[in-house]
Amino acid sequence: MKSAGIALLCAALVVVTSAVAHHSDRMFDHDAVVTLEGVVKEFQYTNPHSWLIVDVEEEDGTVTTWGFESGPPSNLMRAGIYPADLAPGTRITISGHPLRDGRPAAEWINATRTDDGKEFFPETGFQVR
Q1: Cα gap 64→57, rounded to integer Å
Q2: Domain count, the chain
Q3: Full residue range of the structural domain in which residue 83 is found
């Protein structure tokens, strides 16, 4: 009986730890902001997190592909952001909190389409109205 209780407690800890780790945003440096100009490669409008994939041309002509994480489609819809707004080939300026480990990814703060200046703020989809 005692070993069954310990096993159950261990299983519960694994589930809780996994859930907390999945929803953590500690991998992003919230004290830093990166702002880049690039071209949308893909908009992964998916659960549980959406990703805007952007090709950024470096000064030496090489291209670095960046990923900008955001919330699920339901939050993006509440913020008025849809896949057609940022279709592949769209030129944008985008800002985000970069990954702490230096890989080319960030938590999406805002993006602006180059052709018409329209701005996109995913965080507004989290606000209660």
Answers
A1: 6
A2: 1
A3: 27-126
What are the average pLDDT values for consecutive 10-residue runs of the chain, which has 129 residues? 47 40 77 98 97 97 98 95 98 98 97 98 77
Q: What's at 88, amino acid-wise?
A: P
Confirm if 106 and 96 have CB atoms less than 8 A apart.
Answer: yes
115 falls within a domain:
yes
- Distance, in Å, from the CA atom of 129 to the CA atom of 127, rounded to the nearest integer, reads 6
DSSP class per residue in the chain = -HHHHHHHHHHHHHHHHHHHHHT--TTB-TT--EEEEEEEEEEE--SS-EEEEEEEE-TTS-EEEEEEEE--HHHHHHTT--GGGG-TT-EEEEEEEEBTT--SEEEEEEEEETTT--EE-GGGGGS--
CATH number of the domain where residue 106 is located: 2.40.50.140
Contact by Cβ (8 Å): 121, 110: yes
Q: Note the pLDDT of residue 125.
A: 77
* Tokens found for residue 110: 């805002």
Contacts of 99 (CB under 8 A, 6+ apart): 27, 28, 29, 105, 106
